Amino acid sequence: MRLLLSLFLTFLPLYAIIDIASIDFGDKKEGLSGSVYGSFETKRGNTDKEEAEYGGRLEFDTNKTITWIQGSAEHDTASGYTTDDNAFIHLRHIHQIGDPSWAAEAYFQLKQNEFKNLNNRTLLGAGLRYKVFDSYDYGKLFFGMSAMDEKITYNEVDPNEHNSRLSTYFSYKVNINKTFELSYLGYYQMKFEDSSDYLTSSLAEMTIHLTKVFDLSYLIEFDYDAAPALNIRNTDTRQKLSFIYRFGENDPLSTYAQTVLYQGEVPAAVMDESDAGEVKQAKEKTIEGTWLSEGENLTILSSSMGVYMKEGDIYKEKFTWKRVSTAQGEPTKQIVFEFIDEEGRKLRTENYLWSEDTLVGLMGNRVKVFKR
User: Fold this and answer.
1) Residue 51: pLDDT band with limits 50, 70, 90
2) Same-domain pairing of 227 and 352
3) CA–CA separation, 113 vs 180, rounded Å?
4) What pTM did the predictor assign?
5) Do 219 and 310 have their domain in common?
6) What are the residues whose beta carbons fall under 8 Å from the beta carbon of 35, sequence distance 6 or more?
7) Range of the domain at 8
8) Percent of the chain residues topping a pLDDT of 70
9) Residue 322, in any domain of the structure
10) pLDDT on residue 302
11) Digit-coded pLDDT (tens) for 93-145
């Protein structure tokens, strides 16, 4: 798998982008996920040219935290002259606090760009994020605000800078349908002591989900610096068409690794070798099986998957499920169901309470009660 992926990345140009889509708790299964990309081109003869761009992203999700690091680097030469040389790395941690709409954020960023006379720009910041709305039809919108420490060293005559800035952003994502996704990210970063010195960045992205692991992305970016380095323009624009390979829940490599990791586990109970008492005890300790309500049923599998059916298979949906950690010995457990489409993308989340032979679904003002 790795050999095939390396060959694919070598011969097919994949252009680097930054993930700008809104990231929310529960969007992904707990654990590690990410993406990789690379673009390499060499020309000899009438044209003497080399181009290389590569990078990736790693993300780790839990029930109430999201941590990710992403980076990219690009170096291009033509006839022995450097035509592009830049690098970028960003680390961010988000932790849910109190109300699920609120989260605390902390981040670190390092950026270098020779053609902006930028030896390095280092950022360190912390603040709050608020979920403005979350709608199945209209998408998700987040607003963030933080205090940021900025250190800049330049390559040439400009003096080094050490600034304190107020950083604000809006982040929005909407799924048009199962295939198309639109995202927007807008930043405004202003110096506390001088409001005329500010930076803005706007990124809009359209993503087409080709398969469970391959996406096609079209990105437009516009940056403005009110006080750039000497002889550097205020504005920069960029457009990129990208192919992205994402790993984690659905890619073959991760699935194979998970299968190898868990293949030695022993089931909680072997039903055909148990007497009635053992069966009852096993049933009280595991949620797997078929749960029934009026005209509806849930089939929960031990592989963290399940199927919801209504009115005799006329309506069917797939879902993944996980049990939220509770105090040891607590008889009632919280179960989170994430309903997914045929491509494995999340549609909605439902919360359930499970106690022995009763499963109660809590969906706004509606309550569903399922029995074994």
Assistant:
1) confident
2) no
3) 33
4) 0.62
5) no
6) 19, 56, 57, 244, 245, 246, 247
7) 2-254
8) 79
9) yes
10) 74
11) 999 998 888 999 999 999 988 877 778 899 999 999 999 998 878 889 999 99
> Looking at the chain, how many residues does it have?
372
Q: Using alpha carbons, list the distances in angstroms from residue 290 to 1, 110, 309, 339, 359.
A: 36, 51, 11, 17, 11
The whole-number pLDDT of residue 56 equals 83
Residues 219, 204: Cα–Cα separation, whole Å? 6
Half-sphere exposure of 343 (CA within 13 A, CB side): 14
Closest CA to 145 of 161, 131, 166: 166
Domain tally, the chain? 2
Can you tell me the distance from the alpha carbon of 236 to that of 178, in angstroms, rounded to the nearest whole number?
33
Integer Cα distance of 157 and 154 in angstroms:
7
Nearest to 170 by CA among 202, 196, 193: 202
Q: Which of 156, 152, 27 is nearest to 100 (CA)?
A: 27
Question: Residue 186 has what pLDDT?
Answer: 94
Query: In b/e form, how buried is each residue of 143-180, taking b as 16+ CB within 10 angstroms?
Result: ebebebebebebeeebeeeebebbbebbbbbbbeeeee
Average pLDDT of the residues of the chain: 78
CA dihedral 28, 29, 32, 34 (to 10 degrees): -30
Q: Is residue 185 over pLDDT 80?
A: yes
pLDDT class of 278 with cuts at 50, 70, 90: very low
| 372 and 355 Cβ atoms separated by less than 8 Å | no
Same domain, 78 and 178: yes
Residue among 152, 154, 167, 85 at smallest CA distance from 122: 152
